[in-house]
């Protein structure tokens, strides 16, 4: 009976040890990899939604040029402020500038992705609005009530 339990126990210890080693290598400190993956799942899902929306050709909310411009820029601000908040949360509510940088890099990669989508063109101004969205998320987090800040990843 002890021999049937032993491989499972050894496997569990090895998995936890490997998880800690990977976390230490990637992040510089011990981290539980399953918790890390769970923390980053919302980031991955939101990034996938952004990717999907940027791959839809002829995406317009209105036919009016000014309204279309304003709605697209507002969408960039909201999308990327939420992406910033999710990344910041996944990092354990630390690393403000790292979260801004990751959000902005994703925004730039999204603009480059639009090179391959019919009727979509990458624009530097959109990448700047992505950066502004990330900064807006950082400012919003700073001024959120402390009750909301206690949400754990």
Computed over alpha carbons, the radius of gyration is 20 Å
Label the structural class.
mainly alpha
- The succession of helices and strands, N to C, reads HHHHHH
In whole angstroms, the N-to-C terminal distance is: 39 Å
Annotation, overall tally of beta strands: 0
Task: Please give the count of helices.
Answer: 6
Mean pLDDT: 79
> Can you give the helix content as a percent range?
over 70%
Low-confidence stretches: 1-14
**Main β-sheet, in a few words?**
none
Q: Specify the overall morphology.
A: globular
Proportion in β-strands: under 5%
Description:
It is built from 6 helices and no strands. The protein is an all-alpha fold. Helix 3 (65-90) crosses helix 4 and helix 4 (96-113) runs antiparallel to helix 5. It is globular. The two termini are 39 Å apart.
């Amino acid at each position: 009976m002890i021999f049937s339990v032993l491989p499972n126990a050894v496997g569990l210890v090895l998995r936890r040890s490997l998880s800690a080693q990977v976390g230490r290598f990637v992040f510089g400190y011990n981290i539980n990899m399953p918790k890390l993956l769970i923390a980053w799942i919302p980031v991955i899902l939101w990034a996938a939604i952004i990717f999907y929306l940027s791959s839809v050709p002829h995406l317009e909310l209105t036919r009016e040029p000014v309204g279309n411009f304003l709605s697209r820029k507002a969408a960039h601000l909201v999308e990327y402020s939420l992406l910033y908040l999710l990344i910041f949360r996944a990092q354990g509510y630390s690393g403000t500038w790292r979260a801004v940088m990751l959000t902005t890099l994703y925004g730039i990669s999204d603009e480059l992705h639009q090179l391959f989508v019919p009727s979509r063109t990458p624009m530097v101004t959109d990448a700047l609005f992505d950066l502004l969205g990330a900064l807006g998320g950082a400012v919003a987090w700073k001024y959120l009530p402390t009750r909301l800040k206690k949400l754990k990843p």
